[in-house]
């Protein structure tokens, strides 16, 4: 009876219960984002576990994980096992390794450990296929089975325990330290005594699990119980960082990395610890990871407005990971935003070189455009841009760039050289051939010389013409000015100051921008001042009605 579904709509415990209730033989396949698992059932009982073909739980794996054997001793046992049809429990007892029941207990414990883990996968999908389990997935000589009801009860018990454990242990990399040096009480379980001994402020929980050869649940549960009993405490971030630094100085880079990372899990903004972690990665032979940590420091500096600090971190990261294009692109952007154009151009050129090595010509072209924008005179960038355009097959753009370089060249030989390079790219360009021929024959230079002389001559002629025209204009204005001045004097003789001034002002308005007009304005101002003074003198001693008439005249003149 085959069936399938999703964990959530149907609980995995119900699936196991259904298999047990109907004593179904077959294989249950469970998938989730945490992985895949195959579980074998015989007569409704669990009989095997696998991660895939050739990865089924075996006696060899249990020996390797849970029994302290030397590598050569384990190899010898495995070779002997292949020559016998005995089950693993019977075989290890026959070899004097341990009693069959003891090894059977290890097999059951490991099978339980792995099966229970699947109960915590959610969301997940499952599919049950009936029939004998495949030997490609499950070794046939495990010789143990687990009652499903017992497994369900153990899964429920562990779920409660894991909730308590996770409140104490935040990560397998947590490090714990004994609070007191007193010997443990005799009533303490042996697994807890062993764990307590290893809680020395250096070992992580994961390392304790490896050292004790215990299952994950047993070791994590022991650590949590000891912590709840106030017999051990976790190291704080600063303590882990100091311990990591000691490991780093002693060249134990793996330990240093593990502790630095755990310290940062709590204090992720600690720049000093992150820099140390980068150093540890670099010394451990992982420059890309070291560069990644330095990039995080650079990003944080940039967010805080510290451009110089960010540039410094990016440069350090780049020294560790020189092929990292996004890193180099970020550095170019920062340098440009900081106004450091020369440095930005140099780094953009280096970025282009790296991109070309990786055959990323489009990104190289973008970098070269940035380099030329920052420093238009960077010859290396211009030449590399030509090569990049040709690599992309963009001949027209390459030719256009060479023509632009020719226009900016300062000698005829340089101009011809650029145009010849352009002609080699586009041989059909007859206009380029003509320009090159003109330059090489000297016609272009003679033409330029002729037009330059013509320009000078034209300028001189225009200057002379304008001078003559101005002189003629001034002469005609001077003749008219003499006539206006004569008329003005006649009006003065008759005492008509207003007419005299009006005559000069009319001339100045009719002949603007001339020296004669300037003279007319000066003369009109002089006549006005003299007229006002004369009228005021004439008013002295006159009757009041005559004085009022004269006053009106000098006030009209501006007096």
Strand content: 5-15%
Query: Radius of gyration over alpha carbons?
Result: 50 Å
Give the overall pLDDT as a whole number.
89
- Helicity, as a percent range: 55-70%
State the end-to-end distance.
126 Å
Shape: elongated
Q: Structural class, from helix and strand content?
A: alpha+beta
What does the largest sheet look like? Answer: 5 strands, antiparallel
Strand order of the largest sheet: 1-5-2-3-4
- How many β-strand runs? 8
Low-confidence stretches: none
Helical run tally: 25
Oligomeric organization of the protein chains: single chain
Write up this protein.
- The protein has 559 residues and is an alpha+beta fold.
- It is 67% helix and 8% strand.
- It has 25 helices and 8 strands.
- The protein has helices spanning 12-21, 59-66, 71-82, 88-94, 100-118, 148-168, 190-198, 205-212, 216-228, 237-249, 253-266, 271-283, 287-303, 307-320, 325-337, 341-357, 361-374, 379-391, 395-408, 412-425, 430-441, 443-493, 497-510, 515-538, 544-556; strands at residues 3-7, 26-32, 35-42, 45-50, 124-130, 175-178, 200-204, 232-234.
- Strand 3 and strand 4 form a beta hairpin.
- The termini are far apart.
What's the layout of helices and strands?
Elements: E1 3-7, H1 12-21, E2 26-32, E3 35-42, E4 45-50, H2 59-66, H3 71-82, H4 88-94, H5 100-118, E5 124-130, H6 148-168, E6 175-178, H7 190-198, E7 200-204, H8 205-212, H9 216-228, E8 232-234, H10 237-249, H11 253-266, H12 271-283, H13 287-303, H14 307-320, H15 325-337, H16 341-357, H17 361-374, H18 379-391, H19 395-408, H20 412-425, H21 430-441, H22 443-493, H23 497-510, H24 515-538, H25 544-556
Antiparallel strand pairs: 1-5, 2-3, 2-5, 3-4, 6-7, 6-8
Helix pairs in contact: 4-5, 5-6, 6-9, 7-9, 8-9, 10-11, 11-12, 12-13, 13-14, 14-15, 15-16, 16-17, 16-18, 17-18, 18-19, 19-20, 20-21, 22-23, 22-24, 23-24, 24-25
């Amino acid at each position: 009876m085959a069936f399938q579904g999703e964990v959530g709509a149907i609980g995995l415990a119900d699936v196991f219960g259904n298999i047990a209730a109907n004593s179904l033989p077959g294989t249950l396949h469970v998938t989730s984002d945490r992985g895949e698992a195959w579980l074998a059932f015989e007569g409704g009982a669990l009989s095997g576990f696998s991660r895939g073909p050739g990865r089924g739980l075996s006696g060899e794996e249990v020996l390797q994980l849970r029994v302290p054997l030397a590598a050569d001793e384990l190899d010898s046992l495995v070779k002997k096992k292949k020559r016998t049809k005995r089950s693993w429990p019977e075989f290890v007892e026959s070899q004097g390794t341990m009693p069959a029941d003891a090894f059977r207990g290890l097999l059951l414990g490991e099978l339980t450990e792995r099966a229970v883990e699947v109960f915590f996968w959610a969301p997940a999908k499952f599919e049950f296929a009936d029939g004998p389990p495949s030997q490609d997935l499950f070794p046939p000589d495990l010789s143990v089975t687990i009652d499903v009801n017992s497994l369900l009860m153990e899964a429920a018990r562990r779920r409660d325990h894991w909730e308590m454990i996770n409140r104490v242990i935040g990560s397998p990399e947590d490090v714990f330290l004994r609070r007191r040096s007193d010997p443990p009480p005799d009533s303490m379980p042996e697994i807890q005594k062993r764990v307590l001994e290893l809680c020395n402020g250096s070992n992580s929980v994961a390392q304790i699990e490896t050292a004790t050869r215990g299952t994950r649940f047993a070791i994590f549960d022991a650590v949590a119980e000891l912590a709840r009993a106030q017999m051990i405490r976790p190291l704080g971030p600063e303590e882990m960082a100091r311990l990591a630094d000691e490991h780093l100085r002693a060249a134990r880079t793996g330990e240093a990395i593990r502790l630095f990372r755990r310290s940062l899990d709590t204090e992720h903004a600690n720049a000093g610890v992150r820099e140390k972690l980068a150093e540890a990665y670099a010394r451990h032979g992982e420059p890309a990871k070291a560069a990644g940590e330095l990039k995080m420091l650079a990003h944080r500096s940039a967010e805080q407005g510290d451009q110089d600090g960010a540039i410094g971190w990016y440069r350090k990261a780049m020294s560790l990971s020189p092929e990292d294009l996004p890193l180099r692109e970020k550095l170019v952007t920062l340098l440009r935003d900081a106004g450091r154009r020369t440095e930005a151009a140099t780094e953009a050129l280096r970025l282009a070189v790296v991109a070309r090595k990786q055959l990323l010509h489009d990104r190289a072209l973008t970098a070269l455009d940035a380099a030329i924008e920052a420093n238009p005179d960077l010859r290396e960038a211009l030449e590399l841009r030509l090569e990049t355009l040709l690599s992309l097959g963009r001949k027209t753009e390459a030719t256009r760039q060479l023509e632009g370089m020719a226009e900016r060249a300062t000698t005829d030989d340089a101009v011809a050289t650029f145009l010849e390079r352009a002609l080699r790219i586009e041989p059909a360009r007859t206009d380029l051939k003509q320009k090159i021929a003109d330059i090489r024959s000297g016609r272009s230079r003679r033409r330029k010389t002729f037009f330059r002389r013509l320009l000078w001559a034209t300028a001189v002629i225009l200057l002379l013409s304008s001078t003559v025209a101005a002189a003629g204009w001034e002469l005609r204005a001077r003749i008219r000015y003499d006539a206006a001045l004569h008329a003005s004097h006649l009006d003065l003789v008759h005492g008509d100051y207003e007419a005299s001034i009006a005559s000069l002002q009319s001339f100045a308005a009719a002949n603007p921008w001339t020296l004669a007009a300037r003279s007319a304005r000066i003369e009109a101002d002089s006549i006005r001042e003299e007229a006002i003074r004369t009228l005021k003198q004439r008013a002295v001693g006159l009757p009041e009605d005559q004085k009022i008439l004269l006053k009106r005249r000098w006030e009209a003149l501006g007096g």
